[in-house]
Amino acid sequence: NTVTRRQDYAPPAFWIDIVHLTFDLEPTKTRVLNKMVLRRNPDVPAQPLRLDGDELNLARVMLAGQGCSFRMEGETLVLENVPEGTEPFELEVFTTCNPEKNSKLMGLFMSGGDFFTQCEAEGFRRITYFLDRPDVMATYTVTLRADKARYPVLLSNGNLVDEGDLEGGRHFATWHDPFKKPSYLFAVVAGQLVAREQRITTRAGREHLLQVYVRPGDLDQTEHAMNSLIHSVLWDEARFGLALDLDRFMVVATSDFNAGAMENKGLNIFNTKYVLAKASTATDADFDAVESVIGHEYFHNWTGDRVTCRDWFQLSLKEGLTVFRDQEFSQDLAGTPSARAVKRIQDVINLRAAQFPEDAGPMAHPVRPDEYLEISNFYTTTIYEKGAEVVRMYQTLVGRDGFRKGMDLYFQRHDGQAVTCDDFAAAMADANPDSELARLLPQFKRWYSQAGTPVVKAQGQYNAAARTYTLTLSQSCAATPGQPHKAPFVIPVRMGLVGADGRDLPLQLDHWQRPVEGSHTLVLTEPTATYTFVGVDSEPVPSLLRGFSAPVDLEWEATPEQLLHLLANDSDPFSRWEAGQRLALRTAIEQIAASAGATSAAPLNDAYLAALRTVLRHPDLDAAFKALVLTLPDEDYIADQLDVVDPQRIHAVCDAMALQLATALQADWAWAFEEHQHTGAYSPDPVSAGRRELAGLALHQLCLAATHGGELVWPGRAYQRFKDAGNMTDRLNALSALVGSGHDLAGRALQRYYELFRHEPLALDKWFSLQARAPDRGGNVLPQVRALLKHPDFSLRTPNRARSLVFSFCHGNPAAFHRADAAGYAFWADRVLELDAINPQVAARLARAMDSWARLAEPYRSAAREAIARVAAKPSLSNDVREVVTRSLA
Ligand code: HT7
Ligand code: ZN
Fold first, then answer.
1. Which domains does the chain have, with CATH numbers?
2. Is residue 177 over pLDDT 70?
3. Is residue 259 lining ligand 1, measured as CB closer than 6 Å?
4. Each residue of 603-627: pLDDT tens digit?
5. Catalytic site residue 92?
6. Is any ligand 1 atom within 6 A of the Cβ of residue 120?
C-alpha cells in the first residue's frame, strides 16, 4: 500500500540459488512445497529474512530440516533466526492456494479447466513465499503432480527430466531449467492440450523442438504462429547473432489473460488472440499481430530472460528494446521498402494515439519511472512504445552496424545478469566511442528521466541571392506531474530538401566540403539551433523528421502548397503521408474553432481532395500506403491537438469531412473497389493485405455515400460480399461498412455474423467490439452496449470479452462515450468498480479511459470529474485503480 521509489533500490539481503518446487494440482486447493537454498548477501548488513507472499495459506516452515519460528508482517513471512554466516542453508515452505477462485489471473489460475500461471511482475508470491524481485535469480527444478485423465499435459520451464504414473490415476512430470532466472519468468501449465510441433536446425547447427500448445480443436489455427516462431528464431540469429539456447521452446495459448503474452523462459504463455489465426476468423491485422507478438516474446529470450532487469524501474530496458526488435522484425519480414514504410507509419500512428496522450496526461512518467504504487500500472505505452523509440534513436545515432556492436557488447558484459538502463546506454556508447552518441550520452539519457513529448518548432528561410536555405529548429517540453522544468533533449531530426521538380536536392551545410545526396540527420541538442544549407538554386520545401526519427511533436507552419508538394513528391513515405495528415488536421482544427455549432458541409478544399484522388489512382504506389494516406486523422488524435476538447463538436466536423471524402471521390472509390477486391486464395502477405485494406476502405466510403444520396447499390453489394467472403478481413470490412453507414442491412448482417461465429470466441469478440464502436446515432450506442452486457455470451470475468465490449465503448468510441447527460461516465464508473472486485489490473486499464478529462469542455468536464471522484471514494479500492484515479484527480 506504499509508494516504491527508484532511489530506494537496495540489493537483496539474501540470495536464493536453488529452488525445488512440488505442486499437487487441484482446482480449489493446490499444494505447493518450496525447498530453497539461500545464503546471506555479504554486501548487505545482517537483517531478518523477509519473504513476499500474497493470498497464500501457510501450512509449514522448516529451516535446515527443523521446524522454526516465524512471524507474519501483513502478507510478508519474516524469519529472524536464520543462520548468521554466508554459508548456504535450506528452507522449506509449504503452502496452499485456490486457483479456481483466482479471478485476478496473477499467480496460479484456471482457464477453461486448465492450470496456467502469470508471474510478472509480482505474481510468483501468489504461488509461494519468495524474494519476488527480478535481481534474485535461481535455478529451478519443478515437479507437477495431477490427475492424469483431466490434466494429461504437465509443463514447466526448461527440459523434461522425468515423468511417470502415480497411484490413484495421477501422474507426474519433473522439469529442470538449466538457466538461472528471476521468479517472474517461472511458469506452469497443466491441462488438456495438444501441440503443433516442428523440429528445426538453426544456422549454428543446433536442433530444437518448437511446440505450440492449444486446446483440442484449435490445432488448425496454429500454422501461422508456428511459422512466425520459426521466422523469429532465424531472424534473431541472422540480425543479432542471438541463437536459441534451449532444446525445446514451447508456446501455450489461454483464453483468459490480462495481457498479450508472457516470455517465461522456454514456456511462453499467450493470450489466444496472439496465437490462433485462420483465414475464416482472423483478419490481416490479427495475422500481423500474431507474428509480432510471437516475435516479441521470443526475442525476450535474450532481451529480458538472458539479460534481465535489476528492478522494475528498469522495465523499459527489456520492453522498449524488445518492442524495437519486434518492430524491426516485422519490417524485415514485410520485405519491400514500401511495406516497411507502411509498418513504420502504423507504429507511429499507434504511438501518437496512445503514448502522446499518456505523456500529456495525469499518468505521464519517464521511460524509467521514479515511483509507483502498483507496478502493473507501469506496463504502459511509454515504457513499451516510447522506450522502443529511444532504442531506435540509438540506432539512428550510431548506425545499424554500430547498433549491432552495441548489442554485442551488452551481451558480452551482461549475459546472466540483472542490469539497468544505464548499463545498456554504456554498452552502446562504449561500442561506438567516436560517435555523437558517446559524446552526448549524459544528455541523451534525459530521454529516460524526463517525461513529456518534446515539441520541435521548425522555421525555414530561403535566400535566393545567397543561394542558401536556413533552417531554425527550437525545442521545448511542457511540464509533467512532478517535473515542472525540462532540460534540452538530444533530438535526431532526419531531413531533406525537396526541389520544385519533386526530387531531393543535394544537401550541403555551410561548413561541409561537399554535398550529400538524399537525407541527412541533424542532431538538435540546444534549445535553438540554426542550420544553413548552401548551393540551393531554387526555393525548396523542407521534409522534416523523416521516418519519424524522434518521438517529438513537430510544429511547422507550412503553407498548404508546401504540404501538397510533399504529399505529391516526398521520397520519404512517412513524410509524404504526414503531409496529407497535416492538411486534414489543419482543416479539422479550423472548422472546430471557427463555426461555433455550425459545421460546413464541405470542409475539405478541392486541392486536397484532388491530391488524395491522385494518390488513390497513382499507378506506382502500393495499396496499403494509399489506404493510409486516404484515412483521415481520427477524433482522438484531433482532440489531442486541442487545449479544450468538445467531443461532440469534433465528431460533427469529422463526420462532415468523412462524408465529403466519401461523396467527392465516389467514382474513384468505385474504381478502387473494383480494382482491388480480388486477392485470390487467402494469404496474409503485405501486398494482398494492402489490396484488401484499400478495397475495404473503398466499400466503407461507398456505403457511407449511398446512405447520403449517393449510388444506392453499394450497401447491397456490401451485404453480398459480407455473405460470400472467403476470409474474415473481407467479411468484417463489409460488415463494418454497413454498420458505419447505418444502413438497414447492418442489423441483418450482425445477426448473421453472430449465428456464424457464436462458437468462435475471438470472432465473437469482434462482434461485441463492432457494436460498441458503432457510430452514435441519437445516443443509441450506450443502450445497445448496456443490452449487450446482459447477453448470455458476455462476461466481465473474461478480459478479452470485457475489452471487446466495455473498453471498445469507453476507450474507442468518443462520440458515444462523452454524452451531455453524463450517462457514459456513469457507465464507466460502474464498470470500473464492478471489475475492480474481479480483476484489479483490468479495472485499472479501464480506469485510464478518463485520463484526458481535465481538457474537456463543459458540461463534460464537471461530469467526468464527478464520476472519477465517485470511483475514488470507494473505500475498498485496489491499489491499481486507486493509483490511476488519485493521479487523475491530483
Ligand atoms: N512481459 C510481459 C508482461 C506481462 C504482464 C504484466 C503485468 C500483468 C500481466 C502480464 N502479462 C504479461 C509481456 C511482454 O511485454 O512481453
Ligand atoms: Zn515484452
1. 1-190 (2.60.40.1730), 309-449 (1.10.390.10), 455-556 (2.60.40.1840), 573-675+752-889 (1.25.50.10), 676-751 (no CATH)
2. yes
3. yes
4. 999 999 999 999 999 999 999 999 9
5. no
6. yes
